[in-house]
Structures are given as C-alpha cells and as structure tokens.
User: Fold these one by one.
Assistant:
Number 1:
Amino acid sequence: MKSILAVDDSASIRRMVSFTLKTAGYEVIEAVDGMDALAKAKHKVMDLVLTDQNMPLMDGLTLVQSLRQLSHYRTVPILILTTESGADMKSKGKAAGATGWLVKPFDPQRLIDVVHKVLG
Amino acid sequence: MRRHERHVLEAGLAAADSASRAAVDGMAKVMIEQIHGACTELQRVDELLGNAIEQLMSAFNSVSEKAVGYQTSLACEVRQAMGTPDGQRLQAVAQKVAKDVNGVVTGLQFRDVVGQKLGHVRKELENLELVMQQIRAVSADQAGLTASPGPVELAAQVQELLQELEKARVASPVRQELMHAGEIELF
C-alpha cells in the first residue's frame, strides 16, 4: 500500500484528504504543520506528500525546499494543496521543487485522479 | 495691511485650522470605532463558522464509514446485475451516492477557504485602523509641544497616510467566489 503524508493545520481539511485517499486505497499519515511533516517524513519515506501552504511554524514552500534537500525525497512527488491561486505563488512552488499546485476546495475524484497520475 | 486687520486674519486662520483638525480627528475617531465593531463581528462570524463546521465534521465522522460500506456493497450489486434493467438502476444510484459524498467532502472545506478570506479582511481593517490612529496623531494639537499643521499641511499628511495604506494592501490569497473545486496544475 502506497503511503501519503497529508500536511495541513486545519483538522477538517486533513480529515477530508485522509477520507478521500484512504477510500482510494492509500495509507495516509497526517501532519499538522511543516515541522511535524518533516519529522514524520524523516521517520518514514512516503510515496507522496500533499501539503498546505499557509501553516504555523513551517509553511508549505519551506517544507518542499527542506524535503528536496533530503536524498530520499529528491524525486518523491510533492503536491501543494492551498487556497492561494496567484501565479506568483505557483511560480515559487515550482521553483521550490513542488510537483503540482491544487487549489482548495478540492474535488475528491479529481484529487484521486491526480494522485494516481503522479504516482504512475 | 494694518495691524488690526492682520490680527483678525491670523485669528480667523487659527480658528479654521482648529476646526479642520477637530473635524479630521472626529472623523478618524468615528472610523476607529466602526472598524473595532466590524472586527468584533468578523471574529464572531469566524467562531460561529468554526462551531458549525465542528458539528458537521462530527456528523460526517459518524456516517462516513457507513457511506463507504454502502458504496462498496452497491458496487458489488452493480457488477452482479450488469446488463439487466436493475443493473442500470443500481448504476444510477451508485453514481448519485458518489456525487453526493464528493459534494459533502468539497463542502466541508468551506471553513478553511472562508476562514482565510475573513483573516484577510481583518488584516485590511487593522491596517485601516492604524492609519486612522496616525491621522488622529497628526491632526491633534499636542498641547503646544509641536507645531499644529494648517489645513493644507494636514490634508497633505492625511493624503500621504492614505497612499501608504494603499501601498500596504495585499491581494486576497483566496480568489474563489463560489464553492466550486479549485484548479489543478501539474508542473
């Protein structure tokens, strides 16, 4: 079973992501912010990371940059799921090493389709 | 100009300056009170939303497992009845259930999207309040400690502060106007 790290400071979003991806057959590990995610990502290598952008302690872009510095995470897909939809933020996400940008609210079926696609 | 006329003119100008300062100060004071009221209301809306979503989440948690179980058994029934009129009916039911579950999952993200919008509006109001406090500070006669500005100077200072406010404006990070699912872009 492929594992996905779902990072969001909103409990309701984590619950929705977790419900959607578990229903599609994935193992989902939750993290409440970038720092928590980094610790969990070091403990276990995930197949995909799905992270929010605006979070306390460490935001999504910083998390992407930190993960990309870890040898195990150089090629792991990292998707940013955020309410921010500005082109400048997307460019920053791309530059940081994110695989894709998803704007909230997400449609469950479309999220599953994207996850299937990036996991090959 | 004779001495007496000059004295009357200076007294008139001083009175006008004082009236202008009082008007600007009064306006800024009222605006600060209004902003405080709006911020309090926004805070209350945020709390109400939080409570409502908490209750909805609780309901979702108790029915989601059953919904998944129902969808799984429905999918089995659809496979078994494939090619029959019953199969078509069950297929339609399964699609309707999947659409409804997707709608609930999308709708429950409402709190996060609206919360960010509220946060942005509150920040804008706080910036506006800060400018109003600065306007009060420049318009107030500081008991002769500093030179009080005349109407023209006061207007220029207020204009400058409003321009600063405009520069400090940040576009809302949330652009959605409806609760439709957002866009997806793979790099």
Note: Chain B has four helices and one strand.
Number 2:
Amino acid sequence: MLEIKNLHARVDGNEILEGISLTVKAGEIHAVMGPNGSGKSTLAKILSGHPSYEVADGQILFEKNNLLEMDAEERSLSGIFMGFQYPVEVPGVNNAEFLRMAFNARRVRDGEEEIDPLDFDELLSEKMKMLKMENKYKERNLNDGFSGGEKKKNEILQMAILKPKLAILDETDSGLDIDALRTVAEGVNSLRNEKNALILITHYQRLLDYIKPDFVHVLHKGKIVKSGDKALAIELESQGYDWVTTEN
Amino acid sequence: MNAETTAERNSVSDILENDTYKYGFTTDVESETFAKGLSEDVVRAISAKKKEPAFMLDFRLRAFAKWKTMKAPKWPNVRYPSIDFQNISYYSAPKKKKQLQSLDEVDPEVMRTFEKLGIPLDEQKKLANVAVDAVFDSVSVATTHKKKLMEAGIIFCPISEALAEYPELVEQYLGTVVPIGDNFYAALNSAVFTDGSFVYIPPDTISPMEISTYFRINTEETGQFERTLIICAENSYVSYLEGCTAPQFDTNQLHAAVVELITLENAEIKYSTVQNWYAGDKETGKGGVYNFVTKRGKCRGDNSKISWTQVETGSAITWKYPSCILQGDNTSGEFYSVALTNGYMQADTGTKMIHLGKNTRSSIISKGISADHSSNSYRGQVKVGKNATNARNYSQCDSMLVGGKSSAHTFPYIEAANRSVQIEHEASTSRISEEQLFYFESRGISRENAIEAVISGFCKEVFKQLPMEFAVEAQKLLTLKLENSVG
C-alpha cells in the first residue's frame, strides 16, 4: 500500500529526515516511535502533504501512485488520513458541517450525489456513540475551545466517518486520560480490517497496549535505527530511548 | 430553464470564472459630458439640463454655498492625496436624441453593458422578482417592472423623473434626513447630484417585489453623485437592493452618494448593498473608486424599522456610515455589515444609531475582513437622547485578519443622556490561517471551499439578512477576493 524509499526532508533548510525507507501493506499496523525531535512528526506531515515540508530526495508510492505529486486534498481523497497532533481550531465553522463537507467531497469525487443531511446525521450519531462523544459536539464549531482530549476524539471521529485506507495517527495518545485513551483505541480498532493500514506515531508505548502493532520502528536523528515487533516497544519502555540511540 | 433564472445564474458563475476584477471594462457610447470644473454656473447648468423645478435649484445653490465653506473631513482612518474638485466632470450622460419612451430606445451598448454585469434590462430577460433602476454614469437609463409596481401604487423611478412628476413629494422629504450641510461630501452631492432612484411606497402596501438600483460608473474622471430617496408610508414594507461596479482606470473616480430613507408609522425599509466598485490595482494600489457616501434613515413614525445590510468588497477607499435616527417611539434600527479590504484598499465604515424616541432598539453586527496591505476600520456611534427611556443597543464588531500585513481597527463611540438605557458592546479579532486551510485540504476539501466555509461562518449573521441570490453572490465574491491572500 505505502512504500517510502530513502526519504530525505527539510524544514526551513534543516535536514530532518535522512533516508527513511518503510513499507506498509494492507492490514498492517506500524508504530513509529522515537525521542522528541527524532523526525516522527515530520514524517507524518510529509505523508499528509503539508506545504511547509520540503522533500529533498527519495520517493513515496501510495498504491503505486507517486504521492509526492499529489496535493493534500488529492491525498485525502485517495484514502490517506492524518490524525493531527495539534488539530487546528476553526471558529465559525460547525463541526458537523465540516464533517459533511469532507464526506461529500469523496462522494463528489466518486461521481455520487451528496448525502442527504438527515442520513448523514444518522451516520454521525452512530460514530459519535461509538466514541462516547456527546451530541453537543455536532453543534460546536470545529475544534473551537475543545480540550486536548476532545480534539483527539474529534480526529478519530473524522477517521471513522471518512474510512481511510491508510491512517497516520500523530501522537493521538497525548492529552488523553486513561478512559479516553481506551475509548479512542477501541474506536480505532473497530475501524480496522484487512484492507486498511495504520501508522501510529507515538512517544510512549502506552497506546500500543490497546492497539497492537505488527511492526515497531524506532526513529532517531531522521533515520530508522531499529525495527522489530511489539516486543521492541516493551523493551524500549523498560530501557528508555538511550538504549537504541547510544547503540548507534 | 427560463430566461430569468439563466440571467441570475450567469451573474454568479461569471464572477467565479475570473479572478481579476471582471467589471473592469468600459463601454464605448457617445456621451454628453460637461467640461471639468465646479462653479455656481455648473450647478445651475445641471439644474437647467434636467429642467428642474425652482425649489431644486434653490436647494442646490444653498448646498453649494455651504460646501464652499466646508473642508474635507480628516478624521477618517484613511490616507489619500487631496482631491482636486476642479478636475472632475460633474455631468456625463449617454447621449440620447429624445426622451425615451421605452427600453427599446436605450443605447444598445448600454443595454449590453448591464447584461454583461448580470443585470439584463430588456423585457424578455429582466429578473423576475426584482425591479431594477439602472444608473449609468450620472443618469438613470432604464427602470424595469414599472407598470407592475404602479398597479400597487408604488412609485419607483429615477429621481430626475420624480422631480418632474411628483415635485411636491420630493420637496417634502428631500434633505430632511441628510441636511444639505450635513458633511462635506453630502453638501457636494446636494449641489451637483445628477440622478439616482426615488421610491415611494403608499400606506398599507407591501411591495410585491424587491426593488433594486444598479450603479455603473463608465466615463473616466467623472464623479458619480447619485441621490436616493425612499419613503415608506404607514404600515408599508419594502426591501431595496443596491449594486455597484466601475471600470478599471488608473485615475481615481469619485463616488459621493447620498441615500435618505424615511419610515412613517409601522413601516419598514430593508436596504441591502453589495458594493464592488473597482478597488485599484492589487499590487500597486493605483486607481480605484473613492466611495464617500452618506446613508441615513429616519424612523419618523412610531413602531417603524430601518435595517441596513451592506457587503462592501470594492473601492480604493470606503468612507460610509449607514445610520438610523430612531425618532418615533418603539422604533428600531439595524446595521449588518461585512467589509472586506484587500490589496491596498482602505475602509473606514460603520454606523450611527441615534436614539431619540422611547423604547427604541438598535443592533449593530459588523464583520471586517482585512487582507494583504489593507486597512479596515469600524467606526460606530451609539447616541441616546435624554427622552429615549429604555433605549437598548447591542453592538458586535468582529475583525478577521488574513495574512500578516493588514490591519483592523475599531472605534466605538457611546453617548447616553438617559439613565435607563442598556448598551452592550462586544468585539473580537481572529485570523484565517494557512494551517486552517491545510486542515480542510487534508480532509479532501478544496481550498476554495475551505475559504468559503471560514468566511461564511464568520459572516453568517450578516449574510442571512440578504436576499438569497445576493447572499450567494456575496459569498462567492468574498471567497474569490481572498483566495490569493491567505498565506
């Protein structure tokens, strides 16, 4: 599904990623871990098509298409979803309306008619129930005044509505208390199937107790320094990042 | 699809098609234009040209005498070189051979101009539910749906025609809301105005359709000084729309209009404007219209209401404060405004709510959007007289900044001479950011739809006051103007 080959990337002229290669197949969950500043979020931003991040070298293929030639809108429409670490607040734009716009953008792309607002409301209610979100989040403006945890839940709600092929969740666990973490993880797990894939970007292995990864990669100074299975995450937790970063 | 709806659709889609100022064309018609310059003789010549009654010439001469003693206001938060009033022509009209009997006699070039603007005037294509008075440079060229309005007893005609046909009505009301010496530009207008629209709604009448005036400046270095007078008699209602565009010229054109609204007992006037005069070159700031306008309504009769809605998207400089004098008891005034500035535009706009009667209410909702190097100021006054017991005002002024070089300012003035009043004022400033737009795009929503969603969310309370087609058009217009400014 996703092939990253020798990816080099810069932000404001500083090289952040120095040759990343990663292959993600349908049905897989990959966890990308690493200390602060290792380049985890840069990788996520690049996959989502953020204009401030410059790819210096390398290739990214998504379902055999050159991802780097697609803008953020096209990437989203072709099935990539980015769960942001810090979702932006948009006052004045209703949360439910926003979700319906995003949902309809897909329908329009597929040559289908826009969804009936009442049908959409039903769909939305169902997904919100799954995430234990109160109805008032329909009325509120997009992330406006939401707490950190509410914003993260709202990201997963969007994911549930948009049903992406590949979701990249950037530090989704940060800002969540233990109950919310469980709800969010259950939500994410319920969306899994053999056709979609997940990249979890996280600092702590806590999230991985709830969403079990098939692969764990450790990023350090813009490179993947170690890959393994779930056991690697547990080892990291007990030994700390120094274990992998000093080894290299 | 019938012709009416086609015409409406065109005007919206046309706007979307072009990302530069689409109204920037000039029309090549033979026109009769006075030599540049202003003097008492010019004032007399305008009056003579229009064969006006004596009271009108007297009104003009008094205004001119007053104007000569006045100075251009310096208090607005705008910068521009002082205007040479001798370098402007005060009369320009498409040349016509005789008095027009029907629309067939209007210069076909002029008709085509309005059609290009999405305002078809000929009988087959005219807009179904809107009566239009088209003003080209200084002169009204065509008024549609006149007959249908006449049947309801409504007078809707060029003010020059009203002066000939209903001089007593004009004399009774003209200048009663905006006195000749009210301010520098109003005095100038009173001396030299050439045309505009006149509306009279008789008692107990709900206007069967929207009434609209469309202004077009065509000739370079011509001022447009139109005068609008709307009287809504007892228990009547009218909704009035105004649209404006101008060609692109490197020189600045002066537009100094005066609009007066009068409501008698239980009457209501709703006045909506979508202003899109040429704003000057976006990169250099050269050219554009100076829009110095005095708009004021007087709720004379008890329980009457005046509501202003404006969407200001054009002009190099905008200086206007549509206001309400709440004279009757239980009267109410409303002001809903969206003012967008981009490029090097400057806007100083707002309202005045003058509470004189008892239990008077006013509300002010102002949304300023400033992009690029522009400057956008809200200036509003709420004044409560000593007899205005239980007067109430609510004001909300929100500013949105787009990009890093624009500025937004708010100047509220409050004066209350009565202890029983309640006045509330709220203000906020926000920013439309690249991160917000990226968020939409990362969900598969186009940049254009994202801007539209953010702007329409911001302007929601104002847009919902506009008639449907106007609201859609206004929203598209704002989106179009901002698309290249975010970043």
Note: The interface with chain A takes residues 430, 433-436, 438-447, 449, 453-454, 457-458, 460 of chain B (CB under 8 Å).
